[in-house]
Amino acid sequence: MNKHELHIQNVFDVLNPLGGGVNGYLKLKCIQIQNRVAGSAVSGDIIVVSDDCPQAFIDYMFNVLNVKDVLVLRYRLSRDPQRYLNSHVVFEALVNNPGWEETLRRDPDLNLYVQSRSAFAAAYRAGIRIPEERWKTVVVDRVVDAMNDKANLYRECEALGLPLPRHWIMTSDQIVSDVVDLLLAGERPLFIRQARSAGGFGNITVEKHNAKYRIRELESRLLDLREFVHVLDRFVRTSFWDEYVVAELLDLYASPGTLFFANDTETLIISHSNQILSAGRSFHGFTYPIADPKIERHFTGVETAVLRIVEPWREKGFRGYGNIDWMVTVSGECFIAEMNGRTTAVVPPIKIENCLSRHGCDQPPVKKPRLSIFSQDKVNLNGFHTFDNAYEALHAKGLLWGQHGDGSGIVIILPPSPEFGINTIGILALGENLEIAAGVFKEGLHVFGEEQEELLLGG
Predict the structure, then answer these.
(1) How many whole angstroms separate alpha carbon 33 and alpha carbon 323?
(2) Which range in 92-106, 187-201, 228-242 is most confidently predicted, on average pLDDT?
(3) Over the stretch 5-46, which tens digit does the pLDDT of each residue have?
(4) How far is CA 227 from the centre of its chain?
(5) Helices (H), 3-129
(6) Which residues lie below 8 Å from residue 353, measured CB to CB, with a gap of 6+?
(7) Collapsed DSSP state (helix, strand, coil) of residue 201
(8) Spatial contact of 284 and 454, defined as CB atoms under 8 Å apart
C-alpha cells in the first residue's frame, strides 16, 4: 500500500450531500460515526451498519426515533477496524448484499456523494450500477477533500486574519529534523496532525524532558534522541499523507465545537457544544449547552469566523453538516483548531434530542437542542457484554428515556462490538438542564460499575 493507493482511513462517507439520507439516498458512514448512523435515520431511509451491529440495537433506535421503512444494509469490518476498513471492502459488501437490488428499486437514480478518488474507483471496480453522470462526486473538484485538509484551513485562517496557535506546516521530508530542531531550541510540547487525518487518527504529541523525549501516543517511556528520531520517522513513513500541521500544545481551558449546516442559500449555525476530551486530547463526547462566561464571550466572534471560513466552500458546492473546533486557553484566549466538513459524532445525538423534544425531526438540518445533553462514546460495560445486557441493566434502574416521562433519561447511541473486543457503549443523557443531564449520566455509569473518568475537558 502506498500513498497513491490509499484505503480510506480518512473521512469515508458515502452520503446524501445534505447528510440526512432523505429521498432514498444511500448514507454510509464508516470510521467516523460508525453504527451511530442508526441515530440519524429518518422514515424511508437507507443506512449501512457493520455486520456485528446488533439488530436489537437497530430496532431500539428506530423505536426511539419513531421511524419506519428503513432499509438496513451491512458491511463486514476487518479485525482491525481502525486500520483496514476500506472502500473496496465496503462497496463489495454493498453490491453483494441482498438488499442492494431493493435499494436500486427504491431509487434507480441513486446519488452517491463520494469524497475521494479512491472511493470512487472502488465503487466503480465493485460494479455499482449507477450512470456516471448521476454521481455527485468530488472526483472533479475535490471540494470536500480540500475542505478537510488541516493545512488548507490554517492557510485560509492566516489569509483571513483569524486567530491560530503558533504553528508550522511541514512536509514528510522535513518534519523529523524540523521537529527535533524546535524541541532542541526549547519549544514547549508540540501537537502534530496529519493534514488529512480524521478524528484522532494521525495525531501525536511530542515533548522534551531535559535530555529525553516522549511521543505520548506511540511510546509510554521516555526516549533518547536516537530512539525519538526513529519512532517519529517510523510514524511519518507509515502515514498516508505528505503534509502535517505542527502547533504548540496550548494550556487548554476548553475545546468547544460549532456545528454548522450549509444549504443552497446560506450557512446556518446550529449549536456550540463543549467537547469532552481525554488527556491525550481524543474525542470522548460532548456536553450542551455551554454555560461558562469564559467560553460564551467568544460565541459571536466564532460564529463570524465560521461563516467566513465555510461560505467560500459552500459557494464551491459543499452541502451538509460540518464542525469547526476551537480552543479557549486557561488565560482566556480563543484559537481556531480544525474543521471537519462532514457529518460528525455530534449530529446523531442532536438528531435524537430533536426527535424526543420536538416529537419528530424528519428533515435536515437538525435544530438547536431544547434539552441539555451529556454524551459520551466509551463507557466500559465491565461484565455487561452485549447490547441486551446493557439495555436491561439501565431499564432495571429506570434510567432509560421514557420510563418516567419527566424529560430526562438515557439513550444508548452506540452498541458494543464484542467480536472486535470493544466492550463499551455510547450513551446520551438528556435533562431539562445540564446538571440534571450530568446526574443521569453519572447514575448510568454507576450501573456499569464505572466512576467518571479523569477527563481533560468538558466532564
Answers:
(1) 14
(2) 228-242
(3) 222 223 334 433 343 332 234 444 444 567 888 898 888 777
(4) 33
(5) 55-65, 81-84, 87-95, 99-106, 117-125
(6) 369, 370, 371, 373, 428, 430
(7) coil
(8) no
Q: How far apart are CA 121 and CA 78, in angstroms?
A: 20
Q: Which helix (H) or strand (E) holds 424?
A: strand 424-431
Distance CA(454)–CA(10), nearest Å, equals 28
Grid cell at residue 303: 460564529
**CB atoms closer than 10 angstroms to residue 160:** 12
C-alpha cell at 153: 484551513
Q: Max Cα separation, the chain?
A: 66
Short-list 445, 144, 84, CA closest to 322: 144
Specify the length of the chain in residues: 459
Q: Is 107 exposed, middle or buried (0-12, 13-18, 19+ CB in 10 A)?
A: middle
Judged by DSSP in three states, 46 sits in strand
Of 76-90, 103-117, 308-322, which one has max mean pLDDT?
308-322
CA dist., res. 195 & res. 119, Å (int): 19
Please give the single-letter amino acid code of residue 432: E
CA 350 to CA 371: how far, in whole Å?
9
Q: Collect contacts of 304-310 with beta carbons under 8 A, ≥24 apart.
A: 305/157, 305/160, 305/162, 305/336, 306/258, 306/260, 306/267, 306/269, 307/267, 307/269, 308/160, 308/162, 309/153, 309/156, 309/157, 309/160, 309/162, 309/336, 309/339, 310/260, 310/262, 310/267, 310/339
d(CA 345, CA 263): 20
Which helix (H) or strand (E) segment holds residue 183: the answer is helix 175-184
Which amino acid, one-letter code, is at 27?
Answer: K
Which residues, in sequence order, are CB contacts of 174 under 8 Å at separation 6+?
Answer: none
Contact 239, 202 (CB under 8 A): yes
Q: H helices then E strands: how many in the chain?
A: 14, 20
Q: Give the position of cell 487548554.
A: 252
Q: Side chain identity at 359, as an amino acid letter? A: H
Tens digits of residue pLDDT in 122-141: 777 777 765 565 555 544 44
CA distance 244 to 172: 7
Contact (Cβ atoms closer than 8 angstroms) between residue 371 and residue 201: no
Amino acid code (one letter) for 257: G
